[in-house]
User: Fold this.
Amino acid sequence: MKSSITPITPITAHGGRDYPTGYSLMNNGLLNKGTAFSAAERDALGLRGLLPARIFPIEQQVKRALHNLRAKNSDLNKYIFLNALQNRNETLYYRVVLDHLEEMMPIVYTPTVGQACLEYGAIFRRPRGLWITIQDRGRVAEVLANWPIQDVRLIVVTDGERILGLGDLGALGMGIPIGKLSLYTACAGVNPYYCLPITLDVGTDNQSLLDDDMYIGIEQRRVRGEEYREFIEEFVQAVQARYPKCLLQFEDFGNHNAFDLLERYRQRICTFNDDIQGTASVALAGLIAASRVQGVALAEQKLLFFGAGEAATGIGELFVAALRDAGLSEAAARAKCWFFDSKGLIVQSRGDLTPHKRRFAQDAEPLADFLTAVRTLRPTALIGAAGVAAVFTREVVEAMAASNPRPVVFALSNPTSKAECTAEEAYRWSSGTAIFASGSPFQPVACDGRTLVPGQANNVYIFPGVGLGVLTSCSSVVSDEMFLAAARTLAAMVTDEELATGRVFPALTNIREVSLRIATAVAEIAHDAGYARVPRPPDIAADIQQRMFAADYPSYV
Assistant:
């Protein structure tokens, strides 16, 4: 029997919800229209005199916002401008982002969000989301209740320990959940009303932050062990009690905690970890598309990862699931995945392996040099996910090209300063044969008389659509099958024309259609598997589409 839980619905001025008037209305970013309020609305809502006389439609507001944005002298200042616009007028913010997505994406999220996090204490202007600290133990539910929205459906939470490739930033990591939720709205139409960014401040082991008298977090070393686990449990229970329909996304936790939390909660609550599962899905989609270029089956790929943390092993696990689905045994599928970490090749004779690494340990001789590993193993695909810059050297790329007519080189580490190699390096060192993708964006490269367009393996292709499908179906869990379906859906949307230019992902301008198709595939799984807690609609895609947030102003009269 289906429960009475309702899926997310559009929220408009006439959606049956109370909304403020006068100055309070103008200070509500979700409802404010600024100079776009009509004469009738100004009279009805007590706005007469609070705004200049001339009325500007949203198109002219966008034009003004773009003019002011482009006048900023750095990407960080552009980020600050957009953050202020989001706080003031969310509809206008999302119209600017949606209408100019390829220009805005690097500012709203990677790579600029990394610099924004580093300087978050200095650029903090207005609270957006919740900081819940270890000092709030025993009263987490009370703190959560301070958030004014009663029907939160989507929380992105971090503890700031592994922010992008920048490491432990403690309370400064708040830029990540804010940015992720902005992408949920921009790229998949999840209404911002339902979204809540949270940072769990459990201290920091970053000494430079502890020594900084302007640091905004609690001044203590990071809490670990049983005290940490009990704090997380209290937080999860508080979320479940207050927001029973909520999808909880864990983001940028340290490796050990990331795997532990995913395993502990994935069957208990509706949750996933984007660094593990979202990254895996987008990388698998890139490998599927690259296989089309190479003219080989996915099962013929042999992967060598530089890094064996949550991102790398997450990719490996989903790749293994895809090969098992194609008919390979578990052992045969895992034999296709080789990992190289800070201590060398991950082999069975090593005694220092954590459980997530041990599952991929191969019966082989240890190798301590990465170039030697490339030359010895002769992989078809090289995947970097360790946050170590420039590790894909000229010799490494040349070795890949020597053993593969079309080598796959995925430099996935963020931000740009941590990339394993640049797009230009991969193309030039491989004489234009590399199939390249990266975590941060790179410009097209002229090589041997043609222009190659590097793909960006951005999780934004995956997590917004997965989340939208989960929310609209009110799924009780987020399954691995959903991420596998998302990868296949994304790969199928890459056209032959895009592959010919070097892309292994569709253009970002098509992101809403990508998210809709992924959400549809995810919702179908939720209904077929019995995870959905609402009746199955006659047309799932149409039902999801009509629930997607559009950056258009409502009428208040």
